[in-house]
Automatic annotation (TrEMBL), chain A:
This is Protein pelota homolog. Residues 1-130 form the eRF1/Pelota-like N-terminal domain. It comes from Salvia splendens (Scarlet sage). Belongs to the eukaryotic release factor 1 family. Pelota subfamily. Component of the Pelota-HBS1L complex, a complex that recognizes stalled ribosomes and triggers the No-Go Decay (NGD) pathway. In the Pelota-HBS1L complex, pelo recognizes ribosomes stalled at the 3' end of an mRNA and engages stalled ribosomes by destabilizing mRNA in the mRNA channel. Following ribosome-binding, the Pelota-HBS1L complex promotes the disassembly of stalled ribosomes, followed by degradation of damaged mRNAs as part of the NGD pathway.
TrEMBL record, chain B:
This is Tr-type G domain-containing protein. Its main location: cytoplasm. GO terms for molecular function: GTP binding; GTPase activity; zinc ion binding. Belongs to the TRAFAC class translation factor GTPase superfamily. Classic translation factor GTPase family. EF-Tu/EF-1A subfamily. The lineage of its organism: Eukaryota, Viridiplantae, Streptophyta, Embryophyta, Tracheophyta.
């Protein structure tokens, strides 16, 4: 994310002009923009005009509009942000109060004007402009008959491809069929791999599977690369890592990020931190269940008693349109930070964030056990 | 079944009051005891009632089937009838029911025999009413069968579906071979096939030669089962190998399972077809301990899985005895340790048999061991013996050989003996057809081969069948069992069905072939009762797991944890717990990523058993109690 101009006061009004550079940045923008803000950007609008002869003529006009945001939508696969709202800037073609939807995609500049720039929003902006710390891992997660190709970014994980085939078993006469089906399966994965994995962007590619499927695929990949002279693969041979997981389903992504050789590469990235944080939470929950709690009510109660050591929270909670709830969470985060605890904000687009979201979206590891939490209704 | 038949005379003696009833009476005149008591509630007695040709019933049939259809009505809650004669006929109902049961058993009692029975019903007016009742009933029965989602109780199996107990014909037994990795399962299977003559000497030599070439000489026998290049190269089994051979008592289908942790899903899929199991343990030092290790030994996991498949008979083969010098102490040690564990799994002491053996040296597999090192105390095995062999053998052994104990050879059961002493579980012939598909091969355009074991019902070429969840109708072109064509396959048989009229991609492993009028339910949200095994991280709402059911697997998520249950009583101890820890019983709701064919456990056991896995271990075993969201 390129921050072009910044003009704001802490906890006060202000505006920021920014240009998203990749899909990750759009996600960040999605988290920043809430209903009530106003966004200005260059957009195209269909305008009706009366021609001299009396006939109406529709023309697409490029104009700069500022709208008061009513709702925001994020399209993951298409990587575009849609902001819907009412026009508030005087314009020759568009009346004030007319509805418009701004479509922000990569490399389109926009200005965000907010009434209150709280600490969270400032944090986000700061992180966004940080050039390094981009995870950018491509993972080919497979098992026999099923494969997912995922791109793990700074704050989002996108499934680029999902390939599923039925591979027959190896009974005597059908062994040939098995080989054929497997080769076809690998071929499909190879095509998807070449299409979606760009080694200029990605730090490394991980091939993960239970059993020996990964070795088989790796062999196939290398052979085909030699045969077809695929330069991108041949040059980056050393950046392909093999990792063992227990299944080919998406939730095994956790295990990929946990693997030591992958961990080394992405130690400092958000994704790895999130996985670690969640793992700590689960180990606490199994070893000493009274020192871990989840659910807004429990966490609130724990917070009142100043018991929270680490707070895990998803950014989805901040996106609520209700100003009061958002403020409450922001205050919670601030006060925990002030009292010396740590806060991990999980991106709900990552695997661990999804899992935390399933778990009500907010969880905490406590400093001391609170046995009577169980009695309180969740 | 305890029907006492006195010779060939047309009387039978009631077991309770010893009154001699006529052959045609199906309940005792004096005490009212049924001649052939109703077996299991599974077998729906009222299934067989109606005749097959509804259009042209003969007068005899009319009357008798009028009886039976009325009987069906009275048992079936759905249909309300106000036929006054029903009450009078209720006394006769039981007899017609058990008569129909006898007919079901194929004992040759045909419908004409019912005429005298019905003759004892007062007069013609009843017959008239019966006729009316029957015709109205007929209409209803027809309509029911035409309705797509008819209830199971309306299903009437046809005569060819019920097997006649022909002497000399061997029944099929599905035997799964499980155990820790490298314990010798594939080698055992290869050996058994070789010893029973399935694999010719020439072929065996070929395997040996090839194996030696690849540097895997000791795997020669295993190569009979592990046929793919990958498996041979690595020296492991990756998918379940299916092989057929015949013993004295059964046609045996061997399901050789992989032992590796990573391939447990394949093992689940294969062993779901099993009726009994052989658990192979490696007796050598260290290997046995590794297998029974709590954190990941496959001996442990496989034993738990096998038990939860509903298999209650298990043979424990303690293999590689030659490595430990056939030491009795080692055998006893293994037996004691594993025995306690198996008991905690739920195996009864009497249904476990222990066989020490060495597959590599062919000791104690098909004959008693000739090795003098196995000359152990006979007395130790007399107990086992008496349970499995005929009683006279055991008593004679004890009597005659007691003084000669130390000089006797090991007389415990050898492996084939133990296999022959397994009991066949009850087969559901009278339910509609259900075959969970284990494996699919697409032959050519619109022709598909699917393998699987029939769970219920029967199939033969020419039938139209329904494939769920893709809801396509196909015709059965032919059936194959053990690479030979066969004309009929019934519940319990492991067959390959060649289907016509369906595309290859519509049938996958995990689909179910069923009767077109009785489709299997397809769902993606289920309520289940689960038992949590030993887990390291607790299960919370939102936990993502792998859901395995018969041959299908899906990614699943825990949506709700409904309640904790008391393991002994099954009562609810706590509602909506925060998380689930090891060894708890709970009711949970799961949502699956994709739809699977499933039935409630109470209606079909094979399609209602669930295994939950995560992080490479089985974390829960469950049964489906309710289907919450059906896919239509």
């Amino acid at each position: 994310m390129k921050i072009v101009r910044r003009d704001l006061t802490r906890n006060g009004p202000g505006s920021v002009k920014m240009i998203p550079e990749e899909a990750d940045d759009l996600w960040i923008a999605y988290n920043l923009i809430v209903a009530g803000d106003s966004v200005m950007a260059v957009t195209v609008r269909k305008v009706m005009r009366e021609a001299a002869s009396g006939g109406r003529d529709a023309e697409r006009v490029k104009l700069k509009l500022e709208i008061n945001v009513e709702s925001v939508e994020y399209d993951k696969e298409g990587a575009v942000l849609r902001i819907r709202g009412k026009n508030c800037l005087e314009n020759e073609h568009v009346k004030i109060g007319a509805f418009h939807t701004l479509e922000i995609d990569v490399n389109r500049a926009f200005v965000l004007r907010k009434d209150i720039w709280d600490s969270l929003a400032l944090d986000v902006i700061h992180q966004a402009s940080d050039p390094n710390a981009s995870a950018d891992l491509a993972v080919v997660l497979m098992q026999e008959g099923l494969c997912h190709i995922l791109l793990i970014g700074k704050s989002i994980t996108i499934t680029r491809a999902r390939i599923e085939t039925s591979i027959p078993r190896k009974h005597g006469p059908a062994v040939a069929g098995y080989d054929k089906a497997l080769t076809k399966f690998f071929e499909n994965i190879l095509l998807a791999f070449l299409k979606h994995v760009d080694f200029n962007v990605v730090r490394c590619a991980v091939i993960a599977s239970p059993g020996f499927t990964k070795d088989q695929f790796h062999k196939h990949l290398m052979l085909e690369a030699e045969r077809r002279q695929l330069r991108s693969v041949i040059e980056n041979k050393s950046r392909i890592i093999l990792v063992h997981t227990t299944s080919g389903y998406k939730h095994s992504l956790r295990e990929v990020l946990d693997a030591p050789n992958v961990m080394n590469m992405i130690k400092d990235t958000k994704a790895a931190q999130e996985v670690r944080g969640l793992k700590d939470f689960f180990s606490m929950l199994s070893n000493d269940p009274e020192r871990a709690c989840y659910g807004p009510k429990h966490v609130e109660v724990a917070h009142e008693r100043m018991a929270i050591q680490t707070l895990l929270i998803t950014d989805e909670l901040f996106r609520s349109s209700d100003v009061a709830t958002r403020k409450k969470y922001v205050n919670l985060v601030d006060s925990i930070k002030a009292s010396g605890g740590t806060v991990h904000i999980f991106s709900s687009m990552h695997v661990s964030g999804e899992q935390l979201a399933q778990l009500t979206g907010i969880a905490a590891i406590l400093r001391f056990p609170l046995p009577d939490l169980d009695d309180i209704e969740m | 079944m305890p029907a006492k038949e006195v010779g060939t005379a047309k009387v039978w003696r009631c077991p309770i009051c010893t009154y001699d009833n006529e052959d045609s009476m199906s309940a005792c005149d004096i005490c009212g005891i049924l001649r052939n008591p109703l077996v299991k509630s599974n077998i729906q007695i009222n299934d067989v009632a109606a005749p097959f040709k509804f259009n042209v019933p003969s007068p005899d049939d009319l009357v008798s089937s009028g009886l039976q259809s009325l009987k069906m009505k009275s048992k079936d809650n759905q249909r309300d009838t106000t036929i006054p004669v029903e009450l009078e006929l209720s006394a006769k109902d039981q007899e017609s029911t058990s008569a129909s049961v006898t007919r079901q058993r194929g004992n040759g009692v045909n419908e004409k025999d019912y005429a005298p029975t019905s003759g004892s019903i007062p007069g013609m007016p009843h017959s008239n009413v019966n006729t009316e009742a029957m015709s109205s009933k007929t209409g209803k029965v027809e309509k029911t069968i035409e309705r797509k989602t008819a209830s199971i109780s309306d299903f009437t199996p046809e005569t060819w579906m019920i097997p006649e107990t022909v002497d000399g014909e061997l029944s099929q037994l599905n035997l799964a071979i499980v155990g820790h990795v490298d314990s010798g399962k594939s080698t055992l299977s290869g050996r058994l096939l070789h010893l029973s003559g399935r694999i010719s000497q020439k072929l065996m030599h070929k395997y040996e030669k090839e194996a030696k070439q690849q540097g895997k000489g000791s795997f020669a026998y295993a190569w009979a089962l592990d046929e793919s290049a990958e498996e041979r190269e690595r020296g492991i089994t990756m998918t379940v190998g299916v092989a057929f051979f015949t013993s004295k008592k059964y046609h045996i289908v061997l399901l050789d399972s992989p032992g590796h942790r990573d391939f447990v899903p394949n093992m689940i899929s294969g062993a779901t077809q099993a009726d009994a199991a052989i658990l192979v343990v490696d007796a050598s030092m260290g290997s046995f301990e590794a297998g029974i290790d709590a954190t990941g030994g496959q001996t442990r996991e496989h034993a738990q899985l096998i038990r939860s498949f509903g298999v209650d008979q298990i043979i424990v083969l303690v293999n590689k005895m030659d490595v430990v010098g056939y030491s009795k102490e080692r055998f006893d040690f293994v037996k004691q340790k594993l025995g306690t564990f198996l008991r905690t799994c739920g195996f009864k002491e009497s249904s476990i048999s222990w066989v020490p053996a060495s597959v590599m040296e062919n000791q104690n597999l098909v004959a008693n061991s000739s090795d003098s090192r196995l000359s152990w105390l006979v007395a130790a095995f007399a107990v086992t013996l008496s349970l499995f062999s005929q009683d006279f053998f055991a008593s004679s052994v004890m009597l005659c050989n007691l003084p000669l104990i130390l000089l006797c050879r090991y007389r415990g059961p050898f492996l084939m003996d133990a296999i022959d002493s397994l009991q066949l579980p009850a087969r559901d012939y009278s339910k509609p057809l259900q075959i969970p598909i284990c494996d699919v091969k697409s032959q050519s355009q619109s022709q598909v081969s699917a393998c699987g074991k029939l769970e219920t019902g029967a199939i033969r070429p020419g039938l139209k069948v329904l494939v769920m969840p893709s809801k396509e109708i196909a015709t059965v072109r032919s059936l194959e069992r053990d690479s030979q064509p066969c004309s009929i396959a019934r519940a319990g048989d492991n067959v390959t069905v060649n289907l016509q009229g369906i595309e290859g991609n519509r049938v996958t492993a995990g689909s179910v072939i069923c009767h077109p009028d009785y489709p299997v339910q397809v769902a993606s949200q289920l309520e289940m009762k689960i038992l949590v095994l030993e887990i390291s991280t607790p299960i919370v709402i939102g936990s993502q797991l792998e859901f395995h059911i018969h041959h299908a697997k899906e990614a699943a998520k825990i949506v709700k944890i409904l309640s904790l249950l008391d393991p002994k009583t099954g009562n609810v101890t706590k509602k909506s717990p925060r998380c689930l820890l090891s060894k708890q019983n709970a009711m949970v709701e799961v949502a699956l990523q994709g739809p699977v064919c499933v039935e409630e456990y109470s209606s079909c056991r094979a399609l209602g058993r669930v295994f939950l896995r995560a992080s490479g271990r089985t974390i829960g075993l469950g049964v489906v109690t309710q289907i919450i969201k059906r896919e239509n």
